Protein backbone atom coordinates (compact mmCIF):
# COMPACT_ATOMS: atom_id res chain seq x y z
CA UNK A 1 0.00 0.00 0.00
CA UNK A 2 1.41 3.39 -1.04
CA UNK A 3 1.57 6.19 1.48
CA UNK A 4 2.51 8.86 -1.06
CA UNK A 5 0.20 11.84 -1.01
CA UNK A 6 -1.43 12.94 -4.23
CA UNK A 7 -1.76 16.55 -5.31
CA UNK A 8 -5.22 18.02 -4.81
CA UNK A 9 -7.11 19.28 -7.85
CA UNK A 10 -7.96 22.79 -6.73
CA UNK A 11 -9.92 25.40 -8.69
CA UNK A 12 -10.08 29.00 -7.52
CA UNK A 13 -12.68 31.53 -8.65
CA UNK A 14 -10.77 34.48 -7.21
CA UNK A 15 -7.25 35.18 -6.05
CA UNK A 16 -8.75 35.90 -2.63
CA UNK A 17 -9.80 32.22 -2.57
CA UNK A 18 -6.15 31.28 -3.09
CA UNK A 19 -5.03 33.53 -0.24
CA UNK A 20 -7.69 32.02 2.05
CA UNK A 21 -6.43 28.54 1.13
CA UNK A 22 -2.86 29.53 2.00
CA UNK A 23 -4.04 31.01 5.31
CA UNK A 24 -5.94 27.81 6.13
CA UNK A 25 -2.89 25.68 5.36
CA UNK A 26 -0.75 27.85 7.62
CA UNK A 27 -3.31 27.77 10.44
CA UNK A 28 -4.22 24.09 10.26
CA UNK A 29 -1.00 22.50 9.13
CA UNK A 30 -0.33 20.48 6.01
CA UNK A 31 1.68 17.69 4.50
CA UNK A 32 3.56 18.00 1.26
CA UNK A 33 2.72 16.00 -1.84
CA UNK A 34 5.55 17.80 -3.65
CA UNK A 35 8.93 19.34 -2.94
CA UNK A 36 7.98 22.82 -1.73
CA UNK A 37 6.68 23.99 1.62
CA UNK A 38 4.03 26.69 2.09
CA UNK A 39 6.51 29.55 2.38
CA UNK A 40 8.18 28.50 -0.87
CA UNK A 41 4.87 28.14 -2.72
CA UNK A 42 3.53 31.50 -1.48
CA UNK A 43 6.80 33.32 -2.23
CA UNK A 44 6.91 31.84 -5.72
CA UNK A 45 3.28 32.73 -6.40
CA UNK A 46 3.76 36.28 -5.10
CA UNK A 47 6.69 36.77 -7.48
CA UNK A 48 4.76 35.55 -10.51
CA UNK A 49 1.70 37.62 -9.60
CA UNK A 50 3.80 40.79 -9.56
CA UNK A 51 5.80 40.11 -12.75
CA UNK A 52 3.03 41.13 -15.19
CA UNK A 53 2.87 44.50 -13.40
CA UNK A 54 6.56 45.15 -12.76
CA UNK A 55 8.22 43.21 -15.57
CA UNK A 56 9.84 39.82 -15.64
CA UNK A 57 13.42 39.09 -14.61
CA UNK A 58 15.81 38.84 -17.51
CA UNK A 59 16.43 35.19 -18.33
CA UNK A 60 20.01 33.94 -18.39
CA UNK A 61 21.76 34.80 -21.67
CA UNK A 62 21.71 31.19 -22.87
CA UNK A 63 17.92 31.02 -22.39
CA UNK A 64 17.00 34.29 -24.13
CA UNK A 65 16.98 32.90 -27.68
CA UNK A 66 14.82 29.95 -26.58
CA UNK A 67 12.38 32.26 -24.79
CA UNK A 68 12.16 34.43 -27.93
CA UNK A 69 11.42 31.42 -30.14
CA UNK A 70 8.82 29.95 -27.74
CA UNK A 71 7.13 33.32 -27.16
CA UNK A 72 6.83 33.90 -30.91
CA UNK A 73 5.80 30.37 -31.95
CA UNK A 74 4.16 27.90 -29.57
CA UNK A 75 3.89 30.13 -26.47
CA UNK A 76 0.53 31.71 -27.29
CA UNK A 77 -0.91 28.28 -28.10
CA UNK A 78 0.47 26.90 -24.82
CA UNK A 79 -1.18 29.78 -22.92
CA UNK A 80 -4.52 29.05 -24.57
CA UNK A 81 -4.16 25.37 -23.69
CA UNK A 82 -3.36 26.11 -20.02
CA UNK A 83 -6.35 28.45 -19.81
CA UNK A 84 -8.71 26.06 -21.62
CA UNK A 85 -7.71 23.04 -19.51
CA UNK A 86 -7.54 25.00 -16.29
CA UNK A 87 -4.31 23.34 -15.23
CA UNK A 88 -0.55 23.56 -15.56
CA UNK A 89 1.60 20.57 -16.32
CA UNK A 90 3.39 19.04 -13.34
CA UNK A 91 7.15 19.16 -13.34
CA UNK A 92 7.52 22.13 -15.68
CA UNK A 93 10.73 24.03 -14.97
CA UNK A 94 10.65 27.48 -13.38
CA UNK A 95 13.20 30.18 -12.80
CA UNK A 96 15.22 29.14 -9.77
CA UNK A 97 15.28 32.76 -8.59
CA UNK A 98 11.53 32.49 -7.95
CA UNK A 99 11.82 29.55 -5.55
CA UNK A 100 12.59 30.71 -2.01
CA UNK A 101 14.74 28.50 0.19
CA UNK A 102 12.89 25.90 2.30
CA UNK A 103 11.76 26.49 5.88
CA UNK A 104 10.99 30.18 5.44
CA UNK A 105 8.59 32.23 7.52
CA UNK A 106 5.17 30.96 6.48
CA UNK A 107 3.25 33.87 8.00
CA UNK A 108 5.41 36.40 6.16
CA UNK A 109 5.11 34.46 2.90
CA UNK A 110 1.31 34.25 3.14
CA UNK A 111 1.18 37.99 3.87
CA UNK A 112 3.44 38.65 0.88
CA UNK A 113 1.05 36.63 -1.28
CA UNK A 114 -1.88 38.66 0.08
CA UNK A 115 -0.14 41.95 -0.76
CA UNK A 116 0.68 40.74 -4.29
CA UNK A 117 -2.94 39.65 -4.82
CA UNK A 118 -4.34 42.93 -3.50
CA UNK A 119 -2.02 44.88 -5.76
CA UNK A 120 -2.78 42.76 -8.85
CA UNK A 121 -6.52 43.04 -8.31
CA UNK A 122 -6.41 46.83 -8.07
CA UNK A 123 -3.78 47.36 -10.78
CA UNK A 124 -5.07 49.27 -13.81
CA UNK A 125 -1.81 49.80 -15.72
CA UNK A 126 -0.40 47.94 -18.68
CA UNK A 127 0.53 44.28 -18.20
CA UNK A 128 3.89 42.99 -19.37
CA UNK A 129 4.08 40.06 -21.79
CA UNK A 130 5.16 36.69 -20.47
CA UNK A 131 8.61 35.44 -21.48
CA UNK A 132 6.98 32.28 -22.81
CA UNK A 133 3.29 32.99 -23.48
CA UNK A 134 3.73 36.46 -24.96
CA UNK A 135 1.12 39.19 -24.46
CA UNK A 136 -1.96 38.31 -22.40
CA UNK A 137 -4.93 40.53 -21.66
CA UNK A 138 -6.08 41.16 -18.09
CA UNK A 139 -8.63 38.32 -18.09
CA UNK A 140 -6.06 35.87 -19.47
CA UNK A 141 -3.50 36.95 -16.87
CA UNK A 142 -6.10 36.49 -14.13
CA UNK A 143 -6.93 32.99 -15.36
CA UNK A 144 -3.24 32.05 -15.52
CA UNK A 145 -2.71 33.37 -11.97
CA UNK A 146 -5.69 31.38 -10.63
CA UNK A 147 -4.46 28.21 -12.34
CA UNK A 148 -0.90 28.76 -11.10
CA UNK A 149 -2.08 29.25 -7.51
CA UNK A 150 -4.25 26.11 -7.67
CA UNK A 151 -1.34 24.15 -9.12
CA UNK A 152 1.13 24.95 -6.34
CA UNK A 153 -1.25 25.04 -3.38
CA UNK A 154 -2.65 21.71 -4.55
CA UNK A 155 0.65 20.08 -3.56
CA UNK A 156 -0.01 21.03 0.08
CA UNK A 157 -2.52 18.72 1.75
CA UNK A 158 -4.39 19.99 4.83
CA UNK A 159 -3.31 18.00 7.88
CA UNK A 160 -6.88 16.88 8.58
CA UNK A 161 -7.12 15.42 5.06
CA UNK A 162 -3.68 13.82 5.02
Helix segment tally? 6
Helix content: 40-55%
- Percent in strands: under 5%
Q: Assign the structural class, choosing from mainly alpha, mainly beta, alpha/beta, alpha+beta, or little secondary structure.
A: mainly alpha
Largest sheet geometry:
2 strands, antiparallel
Strand order of the largest sheet: 1-2
Extract low-pLDDT stretches: none
Mean pLDDT: 94
| Euclidean distance between termini CA atoms | 15 Å
How many strands in all? 2
Report the C-alpha radius of gyration, rounded.
16 Å
Order of helices and strands: HEHHHHHE
Account of the protein in words:
- A two-stranded antiparallel sheet has the order 1-2.
- The chain has a domain at 15-57 and 98-124 and 137-158.
- The two termini are 15 Å apart.
- The mean pLDDT is 94.
- 51% of the residues lie in helices and 4% in strands.
- Helix 2 (38-54) packs parallel to helix 5 and helix 2 (38-54) packs antiparallel against helix 6 (138-153).
- It is mostly helical and 162 residues long.
- It is globular, with a radius of gyration of 16 Å.
- It has helices spanning 15-28, 38-54, 64-71, 75-85, 106-122, 138-153; strands at residues 30-32, 156-158.
- The relative contact order is 0.28.
- InterPro entries: DinB/YfiT-like (IPR034660), DUF1569 (IPR011463).
- This is DUF1569 domain-containing protein.
